[in-house]
């Protein structure tokens, strides 16, 4: 049941694609502010990845946390902590069903992308991949980035416009540097004048990550 202290508990988690029983890989997709789980699942259809189980959690009120991702973390609680707990539960359920960590891909756009990156950093391990589309690590400038653990070569893709009004470009580069220090193989692509959206090149990069994960299954 959703509560004020755990707003995302009990929210729907949509599933399309392969069943966990037969899937060779799994991808978790996190929608942006004001969007929906159903909307982010459009990416699953566009990716055309047979054998992949896609999961899209729904944020309470269509928002993972209330303020900008660069605001003080305390001002975005309990949304961040509730979302982290929801993701942890979903991840454990996927692994317990037989999909190992190295075949689980986390992807998010905008607010959901920030959440995906922050969750991965706080739970560093060898994932199949981590994708932040128009996203960066959460917290104000100067936030300590002393995360524990190692990504052990996890492929990370960060795509963003150079003029995104929601995502400061320096934060994208800072996030890339932090994840590299933690052992990720980071691919950063900055698109001049693109705006706050997803383009075909980003989708091709995600397809490449998924194809590599499925090929190792």
Count every helix, treating DSSP H or I runs of 4 or more residues as helices: 5
Give the fraction of residues assigned to helices.
25-40%
Order of helices and strands: EEHEHEHEEHEH
Strand content: 15-25%
Dominant shape: globular
How would you classify the helix and strand content by structural class? alpha/beta
The largest β sheet comes out as: 7 strands, mixed
Sequence of strands across the biggest β-sheet = 1-3-2-4-5-6-7
* Cα separation of the termini: 36 Å
Rg computed from alpha carbons, rounded to a whole number of angstroms: 16 Å
Residue ranges: pLDDT <50 for 5 or more in a row? Answer: none
- The number of E-state strands comes to 7
Average pLDDT: 96
Provide a quick synopsis of the model.
The chain is of the alpha/beta class and 217 residues long.
Provide structural commentary.
This protein is α/β, with parallel strands linked by helices and 217 residues long. 32% of the residues lie in helices and 19% in strands. It contains 5 helices and 7 strands, in the order ββαβαβαββαβα. It has a 7-stranded mixed sheet, with helices on both faces. The radius of gyration is 16 Å and the shape is globular.
Please describe the topology of this protein.
Elements: E1 13-17, E2 25-30, H1 37-47, E3 52-57, H2 79-96, E4 104-109, H3 111-122, E5 129-133, E6 155-161, H4 169-181, E7 185-191, H5 200-215
Parallel strand pairs: 2-3, 2-4, 4-5, 5-6, 6-7
Antiparallel strand pairs: 1-3
């Amino acid at each position: 049941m959703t509560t004020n202290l755990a707003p995302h508990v009990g929210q729907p988690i949509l599933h399309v694609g392969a069943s966990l029983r037969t899937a060779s890989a799994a991808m978790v997709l996190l929608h942006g502010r004001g969007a929906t789980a159903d909307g982010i699942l459009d990416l699953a259809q566009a990716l055309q990845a047979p054998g992949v189980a896609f999961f899209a959690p729904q944020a309470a009120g269509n928002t993972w946390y209330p303020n900008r991702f660069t605001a003080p973390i305390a001002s975005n609680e309990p949304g961040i902590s509730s979302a982290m707990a929801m993701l942890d539960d979903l991840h454990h359920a996927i692994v317990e069903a037989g999909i190992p960590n190295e075949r689980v891909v986390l992807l998010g756009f905008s607010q959901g992308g920030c959440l995906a990156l922050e969750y991965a950093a706080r739970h560093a391990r060898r994932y199949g991949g981590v994708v932040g589309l128009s996203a960066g690590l959460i917290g104000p400038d100067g936030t300590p980035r002393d995360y524990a653990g190692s990504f052990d070569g996890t492929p990370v893709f960060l795509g963003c416009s150079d003029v995104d009004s929601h995502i400061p470009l320096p934060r994208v580069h800072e996030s890339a540097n932090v994840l590299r220090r933690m052992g990720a193989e980071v691919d950063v692509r900055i698109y001049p004048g693109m705006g706050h959206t997803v383009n075909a090149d980003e989708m091709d990069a995600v397809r490449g990550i998924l194809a590599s994960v499925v090929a190792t299954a």
